[in-house]
Amino acid sequence: MANYDVIIIGSGPGGYVCAIRCAQLGLKVACVEGRETLGGTCLNVGCIPSKALLHASHMLHEAEHNFAEMGLKGKSPSVDWKQMLAYKEKTIGQNTSGIEFLFKKNKVDWLKGWGSIPEAGKVKVGDEVHETKNIIIASGSEPASLPGVEVDEKVVVTSTGALELGKVPKKLVVIGAGVIGLELGSVYARLGSEVTVVEFLDVITPGMDAEIQKAFQRTLKKQGLEFIMGAAVQKTEATKTKAKVHYKLRKDDSEHVLDADVVLVATGRKPYTEGLGLDALGLKMTERGQIAVNGKWETSVPGIYAIGDVIEGPMLAHKAEDEGMAAAEQVAGKHGHVNYGVIPGVIYTHPEVANVGATEEMLKDQEHSYKVGKFSFMGNGRAKANFAADGFVKILADKETDRILGAHIMGPAAGDLIHEICVAMEFGASAEDLAMTCHAHPTYSEAVREAALACGDGPIHM
Ligand code: FAD
Ligand code: NAI
Q1: For residue 95, how far is its CA from the centre of ligand 2 (angstroms)?
Q2: For the CA of 163, the nearest ligand
Q3: Ligand 1 atom 28 nearest Cα
Q4: Is residue 419 annotated as a catalytic residue, yes or no?
Q5: Using one digit for the tens of pLDDT, what is the confidence trace for 344-372?
Q6: 141 CA to middle of ligand 1, Å?
Q7: Of 207, 239, 267, at which residue does a domain stop?
Q8: What pLDDT was estimated at residue 1?
Q9: Could you tell me if 302 and 231 lie in one domain?
Q10: Domain match, 138 and 277 both
Q11: pLDDT, tens only, 229-244
Q12: Is the CB–ligand 1 distance for residue 31 below 6 Å?
């Protein structure tokens, strides 16, 4: 007889949420985790620590730039980097121990160690082999490497090293103008580093709405980040304390070198499947090294499922969580479902950037007939009072039916504002539905309503 109904490999947002949901559905469940603490990339070296540093550095920025105007006089705080890292560690600890508490509460067994799958129905952890009816792989992702760039996590770092540098670098070169590069680049720019971002493409944050890309880059430049666009990094050369970044401009093949105290390599992440024994199992993979699954998160081997960063789709914690819940429901004989058309994306810079659904470029490509409703935070009273009027809300709606197709926000609390549009989209709402909903004054949310009004007869405050 199997010891377990389900064993989940990996305790990131995909794995731990899946484990808790399995337990809630009455299944006997264990979760294998090789790290010292639960929570995966997100809680240990991703979402949570980066947001702690973004928050602390934003507070410094507010003190330096906006306090005096509000009549808050006195010396700006200075940076105690060790203490800032201690605050970050404390935040991580509160979150990872929270998952440990939830596991105990829900009677999820934590099998400590690195797991492998000798055959379907078996998971090996250390010397012990556990029998189980179902296996769910939630082993996550790791930073992608770049040819010619050797990471030492001291001078040439991935996001993991960038979250625990010995000191704030004088010169930071970031390779890649994606989410990690811009979030962590912002942290260090606020703390006083000279930050240069080297990006292969001619736009930042590929895949986002082009209007937001341009406005966002302008704002980041104003905040002191420098950009070298259309540049292919060739190699880095590092000593114990310094590095050189060699790059070629794509437009004319000219070669250049940048000096840095620290280089952050942020050129994407790749699925992590090392040591699981997937080759021997004959488990089907995609061309991009992800585990191939069907619409029920089943792999090509019966009884083995996969979720989160290790499968196709955006590498986001909430996408992994949703798949975790849905896969648990599938295993329990229910009908778990994820609406991949309504997964928000958020960049936690200041202003924040958030999006859901189609971009204007996608709609043009699809020759979809659409309308645009836009509203600037300059017309929002609360944003002006809070020195947060940089940015706008853009809603895309079907030209005939008025149904909301997508939304893009750059502005204060964009990562929270986007959710009223997500809910509206889940309900198949029209822009008029949003526009006719009373929004409290004075709130940032009023900008969302005004953008919805702009899809119809026009906004009031613009
Ligand atoms: P992971 O969180 O990667 O967890 C996988 C776990 O499996 C790991 O703990 C690993 O140790 C364990 N594991 C792997 N193999 C084995 C094995 N054989 N045996 C035992 N254990 C194993 N996403 C957001 O949505 N919002 C953010 O703000 C955000 N910020 C980020 C910031 C940074 C710097 C980074 C790097 C990522 C960020 N992400 C963010 C992405 C997010 O962290 C991932 O999408 C998310 O963690 C994926 O969850 P997962 O459960 O699939 O895998
Ligand atoms: P990314 O895919 O967001 O960005 C990588 C960037 O590097 C792209 O702009 C790409 O064009 C560029 N690039 C690639 N090769 C290059 C080269 N040789 N030279 C110069 N530039 C190059 O990847 P990133 O930022 O590493 O993040 C990885 C994942 O982590 C993302 O998929 C993201 O979803 C997730 N994440 C999410 C966060 C959030 O939700 N707020 C925060 C941080 C990470």
Answers
A1: 25
A2: 1
A3: 47
A4: no
A5: 999 999 999 999 999 999 999 999 999 99
A6: 6
A7: 267
A8: 56
A9: no
A10: yes
A11: 999 999 999 999 999 9
A12: no
The ligand 2 atom nearest the CA atom of 144: 26
Q: Which residue, by CA, sits nearest to atom 15 of ligand 1?
A: 139
Residue 253: which of 272, 237, 230, 236 has the closest Cα?
A: 230
Predicted TM-score (pTM) of the model is 0.98
On whether both 107 and 179 belong to a single domain, the answer is: no
CATH number of residue 376's parent domain:
3.30.390.30
| Amino acid of residue 319 | K
Domain edge (last residue) among 267, 292, 325: 267
Residue from 337, 419, 441, 461 carrying the catalytic annotation: 441
Share of the chain above pLDDT 70, in %: 100
**Above 70 in pLDDT, residue 305?**
yes
Looking at the domain assignment, is residue 301 inside a domain? yes
In a domain, 222, yes or no: yes
> Is residue 436 domain-shared with residue 373, that is, in the same domain?
yes
Report the domain count for the chain. 3
Chain segment 178-223, per-residue pLDDT in tens: 999 999 999 999 999 999 999 999 999 999 999 999 999 999 999 9
Q: Is the pLDDT of residue 55 over 70?
A: yes
28 in the same domain as 111: yes
Ligand 1 atom closest to Cα of residue 44: 9
Evaluate whether 312 touches 290 at the Cβ level (below 8 Å). Answer: yes
- Ligand 1 centroid to residue 320 C-alpha, Å: 9
Task: For residue 166, give its domain range.
Answer: 156-267
The reported pLDDT for the residue numbered 75 is 86
